Amino acid sequence: MKPLLIVSIFAPSDLNQKWYSLQKRFIAKTTRISYDYRIILNGADTTVFDSKDILLNNGDNLGHSHALMQVVNYFRENPYDAYLILDSDCFPVWEGWHDVLLEQMQKFGKRFAAPVRAENLDAFPHPSAFFATAEGIRHPGLDFARHESVNLLGDKVVEVGGAMRRMNEHFLPLLRTNTLNVHPVAAGIYHHLFYHHGAGSRDFNFRILKRYDYYQHWFDNENREAQCRDLLNALMQDPDGFIERLMHEQPRKCF
Known about the structure:
Blueprint: E1 2-10, H1 16-30, E2 36-41, E3 54-57, H2 64-77, E4 80-87, E5 90-92, H3 97-108, E6 112-115, E7 129-133, H4 134-137, E8 146-150, E9 156-160, E10 171-174, E11 188-190, E12 194-196, H5 207-210, H6 224-237, H7 239-248
Parallel strand pairs: 1-2, 1-4, 2-3, 6-10
Antiparallel strand pairs: 4-7, 5-12, 6-7, 8-9, 11-12
Helix pairs in contact: 6-7
């Protein structure tokens, strides 16, 4: 079997060309083993992508859940040692990330790894960066249907990945590890292995801000358009420098 297959899903967005270029560059920069890279277009414009990378073009946007299961089915039909699903605005940022994940998954006896966004009150794996072993990808419980789950406040939420909460014992959770936070949810570094911009190709809204205004005592949630623009500009103007600051900015001393 080949070592690694990476598939990324792109929905309609004017930013797709930028995310595509950035994602490919960081994958090449940080992945030490040989890999294949493919994309699924879920209603996205084909003209901004290299045709050799396109695994499937759905034509219309069939929904993220549908595209995720298309990826899983393709994985199951094509043998590799490991698999990675990425959101279009997510990519690895740690050189040798693949080796780190496999070592820790073996240490803890896990088949999957994915971010768990506690900062969004989520208690289930988020498929922005979903990594699986060959054994894991064949697990019959692997399901990306939109499913009702319960968040950390005990409220019911319906989300892609919600069905995976029943499989938490199989997951290595990748928690947010920013040493510099420029937003409560967006611009997240997970386990110092992946960057996820968050809402990179949709409205810049997050459940914890829109539904709960959970951070109201310290975070201004009124000017979302400016926040979205400023974060995107900071990333695109200097991707390496921006991510380096998020990962290695020295925190203030508390004494």
